Amino acid sequence: MAQLTDQELQDFQAFRQEASKIAISLGEIHYQRTLIDLEIDKLKAAVQANASAQQEYMKQLGDKYGDGSINVQTGEITLLETN
Q1: Does 5 reside within a domain?
Q2: 46-72 tens-digit pLDDT
């Protein structure tokens, strides 16, 4: 039966320990990425809700004042000309 030298055994064990550290780090990174993905999903839902609410609000303003554009700084409404 063959036997590793002490140095070979230490080298082999060092590689195994490094592989374990890498696997643990990858697991931690995957976990963090999952948390980030969940936060991204929440933000996407918030963007969608905001866009829907904004569209509804713009429709209400259009019904009240007519179709046009709004100056965001002054609130002035420039109505579209209808032919």
Answers
A1: no
A2: 999 999 999 999 999 999 999 999 999
